[in-house]
Structures are given as C-alpha cells and as structure tokens.
Amino acid sequence: MNRLNMLLFSLVTVLFFSCKTDPDSKAVRQEVLNIHDKLMIDGEKVIKNKMKLDSLLVSDQIKLSADSAVKRQKISDMIIRLNAADEKMMDWMHFFKDDFRGKTEQEDLNYYKSEMVKIRAVEDSYIKVTRASDSLIKIYNVK
C-alpha cells in the first residue's frame, strides 16, 4: 500500500473505533420504560383473559361435561399462571426506581441494564401466559 492508502486506512480505523459508543444510562432507562408501557397494555389482556376464564369456571358449559374436573383444573391452573404473571409485573413496578441515581454513570447504566433483564423476564412471562390462555379461551369458545 502506498502512503495515502495507509493514511486513509488509519483514519477510517480511528474514526470507526472512536464513533462506536455504548448506550448511556438514559437510553437504557428509556428502553426499560418503553417496555413497561407496552406491558401495561398487555397486562389488560392478561386481566381480561383471567376474567373470561373465571366466568367459564362458573358456567354450565364446564359443569355439564363428563370430564368437568379435569377441565376445571386446567382452567384453574391457567388462572393461577395469569395471576402469577400479573404479580410479577406488580413486583417489578414496586421495586423499580425510576429516579435511580448512582454515584457514577457506570453504576446508573448497570442498574438500568439489570432492570432491563428483569422487565424482559416479565415480558416473556406475559407472552407465554397470554398465548396459553388465548388457546384455552379459544378451545371453550369464550367470548
């Protein structure tokens, strides 16, 4: 390579590595809050599905079937899972410190990254329990 190419290569390399930045604590915090806001909407679906399954438990549709004990247990188990997912969200909200201020930017970033892991776990449980409860509601044609 000639000198000009070497100089250009060096300049591009320096620019590439100097422009690469990690997210700051404010950006991670905002992403956590965005996920929280989405989960608040998803939480409404969790509660609605729970109410539908609760009503199904007291309906004649289950009481009159031959294997009603098995069906009632499946529905009860799903209600327990829905409650657990909702409780997990409530616990996360209770312990989340929106105004967390650590001693350094890195401590703030570490806090919000750990909260990201926790809120993603809540999101995962919401997705799983919503899909499972939707399937059960569909099986029993609950409106």
Task: Give a quick precis of the structure.
This protein is mostly helical. The chain is 83% helix and 0% strand. It has helices at residues 3-19, 25-58, 60-63, 68-95, 105-139.
- Tally of helical runs: 5
The count of strands amounts to 0
Helix proportion: over 70%
Q: Please indicate the percent range of residues in DSSP E strands (runs of 2 or more).
A: under 5%
Molecular structure report:
- By secondary structure, the protein is mainly α.
- The protein has one domain (22-139).
- The protein has five helices and no strands.
- The chain has helices spanning 3-19, 25-58, 60-63, 68-95, 105-139.
- α4 (68-95) packs antiparallel against α5.
- The longest helix is centred in the C-terminal third of the chain and has 35 residues, at 105-139.
- The protein starts with a helix and ends with a helix.
- The mean pLDDT is 86.
Topology:
Layout: H1 3-19, H2 25-58, H3 60-63, H4 68-95, H5 105-139
Helix pairs in contact: 2-4, 2-5, 4-5
Can you tag this structure with a few keywords?
143 residues, mainly alpha, 5 helices
